[in-house]
Specification:
The complex is a heterodimer of chains A (88) and B (368).
Chain A (H helix, E strand, L loop, with lengths): L3 H4 L4 E3 L3 E4 L2 E4 L4 E3 H9 L6 H11 E2 L2 H17 L3 E3 L1
Antiparallel strand pairs in A: 1-6, 2-3, 3-4
Chain B lengths: L2 E2 L5 E2 L2 H5 L6 E5 L25 H13 L4 E5 L9 H10 L3 E6 L6 H7 L4 E7 L4 H7 L4 H16 L3 E7 L7 H11 L3 E6 L14 H18 L4 E2 L12 H5 L14 E4 L4 E3 L13 E2 L5 H7 L1 H7 L8 H5 L3 H4 L4 H8 L7 H8 L10
Parallel strand pairs in B: 3-4, 3-10, 4-5, 5-6, 6-7, 7-8, 8-9
Antiparallel strand pairs in B: 10-11, 11-12
Helix pairs in contact in B: 2-3, 4-6, 7-8
Classes of the chains: A alpha+beta (88), B alpha/beta (368).
């Protein structure tokens, strides 16, 4: 797994198909994501850096930049460890 | 208005988390008719059965699966391309944004058919190859290998990607799987799907390799895969059990690239519309939970007592070697249908892992 400084420049890409439900989403691999993780997963489209995902989080959620960064990076790490995303 | 940032996390408690039971996948045995009579066929493909679903009924079922948010449909047979409406059915599935996997023996596919399939939503276009030319033709039929190989090349040139070769590991081919994946890659397949034999339908116990052969066959296969991995990958639906993946590949977590079986969040639908928890279970009347000609899929999925009971089973309920295996939460006990076929109990272990365990050959580093 990349170091945090590099993660911000990384471009994550979704691996699995998914479906949305009222409480979150379900990936084809059997992983379920809550609403916020789903929001992030949908932004993982290879043309967007993690730093850009954080910017979008800030625009859409009531959260300060430090918490947005920590939570987003943690989510990206969890998705990577769960083999839900890969890096371009 | 901005939303509050909630704790970001991922988890696997599917039904408790979502508050409903999602139907991830459906396997549709689109016809029982087949132009071959392979001795290992778990579906006993052969003659067309009475009352097979017509085009309208199949399309209605696909519409219902789309409403249930099904992620993908696996079309099996028999031989799916014996149905004259198969292209129409696949197009309809694609229009509904459902991913398509299909398994075919390739004998009826030509350039004209493939051109009609171009740009459909395939995640796997799987052609069966059971061995080298001699072995495949012995198992499947005269000159079948030649036609299958030609179709792989043609499919690659037209569909471009997600061209798979599917092989069932059995007594006659366990020691040539490395040759099969090599040939598949040479001809342009980019996906290899290995399935372990399920002793049901026409398959018999004598066709099953012994534990030592299964492990040796897998080791040979993965040794070849090491050389080919930039060209071909294992299918997400491959049924190689995580604990049986050679250790060096387990360390690299290769098994995480195989999607664990979607059971119990899946259904099988037979050619005549019967619904079972998996398409390997149509031989068990107690597991036929309805028929799509009589009830909607939503009604069957949400109201069947049998399906509800099966969905209550957790990895912690598994018995035998599965109980001790470090991969049980990920793998979910391998093939639950085969466990039922062998032991008539969904909490029993995967029969192949159990047999290997009883032979003293189950990898010790996979045991708690």
């Amino acid at each position: 797994m990349r170091e945090n400084t590099n993660i911000l420049k990384a471009r994550p890409t979704k691996i699995w198909e998914f479906r949305e439900y009222p409480k979150g989403s379900l990936l084809e691999s059997g992983i379920v994501l809550n609403e916020t993780a789903t929001f992030i997963y949908k932004l993982c489209s290879a043309d967007r850096k993690v730093s850009e995902i954080i910017e979008i989080i800030l625009e859409n959620y009531e959260v300060n930049s430090e918490k947005a960064k920590i939570d987003t990076v943690n989510c990206i790490k969890e998705l990577f460890n769960a083999n839900a995303i890969k890096f371009k | 208005m901005k939303k509050k940032l909630k704790l970001i996390s991922t988890e696997r408690g599917i039904q408790s988390f979502l508050g409903e039971a999602p139907l991830i996948a459906a396997s549709i045995r689109i016809t029982n008719a087949c132009n071959f009579r392979c001795s290992h066929c778990y579906t006993e493909g052969g003659l067309v059965t009475k009352n097979e679903l017509n085009t309208k009924e199949v399309k209605s079922m696909i519409d219902q699966l789309a409403e249930l948010k099904t992620l993908y449909i696996f079309f099996t047979g028999g031989e799916p391309f014996l149905r004259k409406d198969i292209v129409d059915i696949l197009k309809h599935t694609s229009d509904k944004k459902i991913k398509i996997s299909i398994s075919t023996n390739a004998q009826l596919i030509n350039q004209q058919v493939l051109k009609k399939l171009k740009n459909l939503n395939f995640n796997l276009f799987q052609i069966s190859i059971e061995g080298t030319k001699k072995v495949h033709n012995k198992i499947v039929g005269k000159e079948a290998w030649e036609k299958s190989i030609k179709t792989i090349v043609l499919a690659k040139s037209i569909l471009k990607e997600n061209i798979g070769v599917g092989t069932v590991m059995m007594k006659e081919n366990w020691n040539i799987l490395d040759k099969v994946i090599l040939e598949a890659s040479r001809q342009g397949a980019d996906i290899f799907s290995l399935m372990l034999l399920i002793v049901t339908g026409r398959a018999e116990d004598s066709m099953m390799p012994v534990p030592k052969e299964i492990l040796e066959g897998l080791q040979q296969l993965f040794n070849q895969y090491r050389k080919l991995q930039t060209k071909i990958k294992f299918a997400q639906n491959t049924t190689i059990l995580p604990a049986l993946v050679p250790k060096e590949w387990r360390k690299k977590e290769l098994h995480k690239t195989f999607a664990p079986c979607s059971f119990p969040y899946c259904i099988g639908v037979s050619a005549n519309g019967d619904v079972a928890p998996c398409d390997g279970l149509f031989n068990y009347p107690e597991l036929i939970v309805g028929n799509v000609k009589e009830k909607t899929l939503s009604e069957i999925w949400n109201k069947s007592k049998v399906l509800k009971e099966i969905r209550k089973i957790n990895p912690t309920d598994l018995k035998g070697v599965c109980r001790k295996c470090i991969y049980k939460d990920y793998c979910g006990g391998g093939c639950r249908a085969y466990a039922y076929i062998k032991y008539r109990d969904f909490t029993m272990p995967d029969p192949i892992c159990q047999t290997i365990y009883e032979a003293g050959l189950f990898p010790k580093d996979c045991l708690k």
